[in-house]
Amino acid sequence: MRRYNYTEVTDMSANRDHYTRHGLHMNGKGKDWLARRTVDTINKLFVNQELAPITLEWEESSEKRDQPKTIGHKESNSGIEQQEVRTSSRIQKQPRKMDTFLWSTR
After folding, report:
1. Residue ranges in 18-92 assigned as alpha helix (H)
2. Does 32 fall in a domain?
3. CB 92, CB 100: distance < 8 Å
4. Rounded Cα gap, residues 73 and 16, in angstroms
5. Is the pLDDT of residue 68 over 90?
6. CA–CA separation, 68 vs 80, rounded Å?
């Protein structure tokens, strides 16, 4: 009866005590029984489940391998020089100040 791998069919209870007097709905005892049955089914999914780690091969490009590792420095023929510091020319807005603890916006 399994149509999909990710579904599970649960047989319902035929016990009269699990249904209301007219038999159309489950009462509290029946809902508890169905909840326990569902929890047992979910717990079976996680018991003894062996997860294989996802392994990725490490690959460095040939360009990165051939370059020397320098951080924050430029190499030249005369030695190591400091890189120039870059600054922004953008006008920076001042942060808003709170008038009170309720912070009124004007």
Report:
1. 28-46, 62-66
2. yes
3. no
4. 81
5. no
6. 12
Taking phi first (over 0 means left), then psi (-120 to 50 degrees means alpha), and beta for anything else, what does residue 6 get? alpha
AA letter at 78: S
Residue 59 belongs to some domain of the structure: no
> Number of folded domains in the chain?
1
For residue 63, being part of any structural domain is answered with no
Q: Tell me, yes or no, whether 34 lies in a domain.
A: yes
Alpha-carbon span 41 to 36, nearest angstrom: 9
Q: Which domain holds residue 35?
A: 19-46
Supply 53's token pair.
């780690």
Give pLDDT tens digits for 94-104: 777 666 666 65
Give pTM, 2 decimals.
Answer: 0.42
pLDDT tens sequence across 12-54: 888 888 889 888 899 999 999 999 999 998 888 878 777 788 8
